[in-house]
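We give this protein:

***
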Amino acid sequence: MIAPLPPPNGGVAQISEMIFKSTLAEEYEIVLVNTSKPHEIRERVGRIGITSFYFPQVLWIRLLVQLVRFRPKTVYVVCSSDYSYLRDAIFMLTARAGGAHVVAHFHGRRRGFLFGGRYAITDFLLRLTVPLFDRMIFLSPGLQRSLVSAFGAKKGEVVGNFVDMSLMPLPRLSQRTGNQIVYVGRLSEAKGTFELIEAMAMLVRNGIPAFLHLVGIGETKIEEEVIRGLVSSKGLDAIVQFHGIVTGVEKGALMAQSDIFVLPSRNEIFPVTIVEAFAAALPVVSTNVGAIPEMVLEGANGFLVTPRDAHALFEKLRLLLEDKQLRIQIAERNFLLALTAYTKESAIAKISTILKSVGSASL
C-alpha cells in the first residue's frame, strides 16, 4: 500500500489510514510505504520545495525494497492529480515491473497542467499510463466522467469517501442550542476562511446570534496569524473559537454538538468533512465545486454558494440559523444518508471486492 497517513491530517491521509487499519488487514498481509513527508504538520497544497525533488526518490527506493522483500501480489497506490501523478505513475510502472497487480485510488480532479487543460496532448499522455493499473478507483461518478477522455471507462470503479460511524456520537437534536456553526479543515484562503469570517461579521451586524468553531490550523503560521488578526479586527473574538487540530472521537463530539457545518472552499474534490457532517446530523453550507454538488443537493440536505461570495454564504447561514424546523429536517435526512451511503464498512467491502477481482486475474 503506497499512501499517505497522518500527519498532516488531510482527508486523503485520513481515508488512507482508515483503509490501512480496516478489516482488509484480516484478509491481506499489508505493508505500507507512507508517502507523507516526515514531521510535517501544516500542509500547503501544491507547494513545491526541496523535498519535492528528493523525497519521491526515497519513496521509490522504499518501494523497490518492499517489492524484493515482500513480493506483493497487488500494489495499492493512492494517486493525486497533476504533477504528483507523474510520481504515482512511476510507482505503478515499478510495481508492474516487479510482477504485481496495481489498483490506483485517484484522489484528484480536473486541475493543473496535466488534468485541467483537457488538451488532446495531455489526455494522450495520461492514456499512456492506463496499462500501468488494473483498476482506477474514483471518488464519485461525476469525477469519473470528467476523466473518461484521459483514462477511459473500462477500468474505472467508484468508491466515495466515507466515515467511521463509531467515532460519531448519536446526535441529540433536542439538546442543540441552535446557533453553533462548525468548520473543519485547513485555515486558508483556498478553503474560504476569509469569506467565512466576513459572513460571521455580517451575521453580527444583522443581530443574528451565532458562534463559530474553527477546527484546524493554518497552512502556514503566518497565514494563521493573519486569520486570527482578521477575527480580532472585526470584533469577533467573543464568537469565534480556534480549536486547532481535533481528531477522532473528540472531533465527532464537537461536530455533533453543533447545528450547522460550513465549508466555503474555492477548490475541493470530495471532502471527507462533509461526509462527517452528514454523520453528525448537520445541514451543510458549502460551495459548488468538485464533487460537492453530487453530495449536497440544494435545499434537500444543505445549500451551495459560489466560491468567494461572502454575502451568499451569510444568506444561507442566516436561513438555517433562523429556521429551526428546516435545520431539524435536514439534520435527520443527512444522518440517514450517512448510514445508508457513506459508512466505512460499505466502502471497505467495495475495495475488498475490487482487490479480489484484480488478484484473481492473470497479469
User: Anything to note?
Assistant: The radius of gyration is 21 Å. The chain has a mean pLDDT of 94. DSSP finds 16 helices and twelve strands in the chain. Residues 2-161+343-359 form a domain with the Rossmann fold fold (CATH 3.40.50.2000).
